Amino acid sequence: MSLLFSPITLREVTIRNRVWVAPMCQYSALGGVPNDWHLVHLGSFARGGAGLVLTEATAVVPEGRISPEDTGIWNDEQQAAWRRIVDFVHDQGATAGIQLAHAGRKASTYSGFTGARGGVPDSDGGWRPVGPSAEPFPGLREDPEPLDRAGVERLVTAFGDAAERAVAAGFDVLEVHAAHGYLLHEFLSPLSNHRDDEYGGSFENRTRLVLEVVQEVRRRVAAGVPLLVRLSATDWVDGGWSADDTVRLAGLLREEGVDLVDTSSGGNVVAQIPVGPGYQVPFAARVRAEAGIPTGAVGKITEPKQAEEILAEGSADVVLLARELLRDPHWPLRAAHELGETEADLWPVQYRRAAP
Ligand SMILES: Cc1cc2nc3c(=O)[nH]c(=O)nc-3n(C[C@H](O)[C@H](O)[C@H](O)COP(=O)(O)O)c2cc1C
């Protein structure tokens, strides 16, 4: 059996294979409520044979949405709508995961669907974003409000509430989004965090918020629920958040009960990023080797053999795909075929009579 199609168990959840769907914003929800688009979008990956289907960045509070059209998980209506999608994903034999997110200073941004770009003004349904500091992200809302102590506490509680709701909606796996220049990453990086309280300055202070969020989430859900954290391994800028910082934080996350680090990069500041096939894999490899925690590799993974090789060389425990799965939601079925796997179990029952 290939490594790609061998199951993986995290806590009490066994996932059928190691081809996971990377989170992908769809900017298609009204009032944070996922709809038929999300059902078909996420459902197609489950039908296509993926192991874990992760939702898009799903906001834990309304002001934590990137665009006004982001999904959320802060009320009963959203929870019920997610349940329908989770049930379908389960029916296809896949595992359902949700990415819990807060966009921080990058909130209240146009999706781009209508041609409008940049920050959404209050007059068009936008809101004042929050961040660690008052400094804006270039080209987005210019007025981020630094979170005060009470705001930080509310934020931590909101992640816990969202985690509880996610589990109630049937999600098996939770991922905390601490990458791509959104709120938790903004606190981690010295380039975006200019605070002088206990949440800014030293490494210990900048990592305090993500650790508090993880502790709260762990406290609020059953011990059997796997918890992933997505990190940007580097800001790709001298003086920014670095791979060394990531390794150090990953070790602390492991001690707090995080089960896997989903290792991405960038997004917090404008940077030159050497994008190419598997360009973020070395970060996943370092975290896995040096922090002793399972990792997911993501970024420009497109070929079944490439994915198998990443696992075989010990760089990661799973791979996450985004754009290649948009090109072909049945990529896992094709990959299983190319790797010489017994495919029948992966095919939906409706297709199985025709399975090779
Ligand atoms: C349409 C789209 C939406 C995305 N939305 C998110 C998101 O909600 N959360 C996140 O962590 N990453 C998001 N990403 C980044 C992907 O999860 C992934 O890390 C990135 O696309 C690199 O993988 P790829 O080369 O396989 O596309 C998005 C990517 C795409 C293409």
Written description of the protein model:
The chain has helices at residues 36-47, 76-91, 149-168, 183-188, 203-206, 208-220, 243-255, 281-291, 304-312, 323-327, 331-338, 349-352, and strands at 8-10, 13-15, 19-21, 52-59, 95-101, 130-131, 145-146, 173-178, 227-232, 260-264, 295-298, 318-321. Helix 1 packs parallel to helix 2, helix 3 (149-168) packs parallel to helix 6 and helix 7 (243-255) crosses helix 8 (281-291). The two termini are 17 Å apart. The radius of gyration is 19 Å and the shape is globular. The protein has 356 residues and is of the alpha/beta class. It has an 8-stranded parallel β-barrel with strand order 3-4-5-8-9-10-11-12, surrounded by 7 helices. The protein has a two-stranded antiparallel sheet with strand order 1-2. Strand 9, helix 7 (243-255) and strand 10 (260-264) form a beta-alpha-beta unit. Flavin mononucleotide binds next to strand 4 and helix 10.
**Treating each run of at least 4 consecutive H or I residues as one helix, how many helices?**
12
Give the spatial strand order of the biggest sheet. 3-4-5-8-9-10-11-12
CATH C-level: Alpha Beta
The share of residues in extended strands comes to 5-15%
How many domains is the backbone divided into? 1
Tally of DSSP β-strands? 12
Overall mean pLDDT: 97
Low-confidence stretches: none
Q: Give the ligands present.
A: flavin mononucleotide
Structural class: alpha/beta
Name the CATH superfamily assignment: Aldolase class I
- How can the largest sheet be summarized? 8 strands, parallel, barrel
Q: Termini separation (Å)?
A: 17 Å
**CATH fold title:** TIM Barrel
The assigned CATH architecture is Alpha-Beta Barrel
